[in-house]
Amino acid sequence: xxxxxxxxxxxxxxxxSGAQAFASNYATCIxxxxxxAVNDIAAQAVHQVCLKENPGAIQAVPQGSGRGLMGYNSxxxxxxxxxxxxxxxxxxAMIGVACRKLYxxxxxxxxxxxxxx
Length: 117
Known about the structure:
single chain
């Protein structure tokens, strides 16, 4: 009985946590290391560290893989939270790409794209 209770609690924690807390990929590495970067040299170093740890870079991150009950509701919401205090434009751009990859769903571009006339 006690084992089942522990299993239920562990399952609930997994379901309630966003994928970011458990997954380690290029995008989550960027979101862990780039916020607050004060210059582009630091941002480039963050990119190098994350690329070494995750050779597939952003292309290896499944679109929308950070979405979950405890994650951000959108890429834009993530960018506001993670990039607002980042002085490096390069780091802010990297955060934006990582947030959009993790938290925008696969159909986001279809739903939100403005047609070119």
